[in-house]
Amino acid sequence: VQLQAYGGGLVQAGGSLRLSCAASGRTLSSYHTGWFRQAPGKEREFVAAINWSGDNPHYADSVKGRFTISRDNAKNTVYLQMNSLKPDDTAIYYCAATVSISRYYLRRYDYWGQGTQVTVSS
Question: d(Cα 75, Cα 29) in Å, to the nearest integer?
């Protein structure tokens, strides 16, 4: 499966963005998916994840209550709605996928998109 993340941009603190991750090559409904981010000079970190059926989404503590992950299998797309954005959310955001439920829970994904830049100004 190939993943394409888009929807990033420049936004002021307190604003919102919605990221999308479109899949091609195979149907996304076969995959558990997640979002990660990497800020300059920092390691990549987990943001949110959702299983193939859309059940039981989970989040990093730093984004809980502000970000919402969802998916539309009919559109082969996963979304990350980001509200109340903070300058600390500035990073390149990556979507990822795996067919393995064990790797999903371990946050070890097999397929990665190219990333989309999110910049939050203060």
Answer: 10
Rounded Cα–Cα distance for residues 96 and 43 (Å): 16
DSSP class of residue 23 equals: E
Question: How many Å apart are CA 67 and CA 61, to the nearest integer?
Answer: 10
Residue 58's alpha-carbon distances to 18, 40, 89, 105, 121, in angstroms, are 17, 24, 17, 10, 26
Structure tokens at 63: 């984004």
Q: Is 16 helix (H, G, I), strand (E, B) or coil?
A: coil
Distance CA 76, CA 81 (A): 16
| Span 33-67, pLDDT tens digits | 999 999 999 999 999 999 999 988 999 999 999 99
CA 52/CA 16 separation, integer angstroms: 25
